[in-house]
Design brief:
By secondary structure, the chain is mostly beta strands. Helix content is about 0%, strand content about 35%. The strands form 2 sheets. The chain has a 6-stranded antiparallel β-sheet with strand order 6-7-1-4-5-8, with no helix packed on it. Strand 2 (about 35) and strand 3 form a beta hairpin.
């Protein structure tokens, strides 16, 4: 059967290529309860002002300079676009929206900051 008439199934994966300076990230655990470093349980309903979020890079566009797939990045969760691909939620960001990068490949003296 020709590819254009073949039905898509859940196991069919379409490749995703990010364009320009766009970055595709996947959040780790759901925003729920968390513990402080002192062991205090903080409920998901607690008001937290302007808290940045960590996510893992899944794909990067050709004009992204300082970030690679697999890196952890810090960004403002208010500056994001969400997309669902085959039932999995991802976030699309621009490289300039990233506040910090955490990766083993970075030099020890490097802060990982994107300025």
């Amino acid at each position: 059967m020709p590819a254009e008439k073949r039905p898509l199934h859940d196991d069919d994966r379409l490749p995703v290529k990010m364009l320009n300076d766009r970055i595709l990230v996947k959040l780790g655990e759901a925003d729920g309860e968390r513990r402080s470093s002192g062991g205090i349980l903080i409920p998901a309903t607690a008001q937290v002002g302007k808290r940045l979020t960590w996510a893992e890079i899944v794909a990067v566009g050709p004009n992204v300079r300082n970030i690679e797939a697999g890196d952890q990045v810090l960004f403002n969760p208010d500056d994001r676009y969400e997309v669902e691909v085959h039932g999995t939620d991802y976030i699309v960001l621009r490289e300039r929206d990233i506040h910090a990068v955490a990766a083993e490949r970075l030099d020890e003296g490097s802060t990982g900051l994107y300025l």
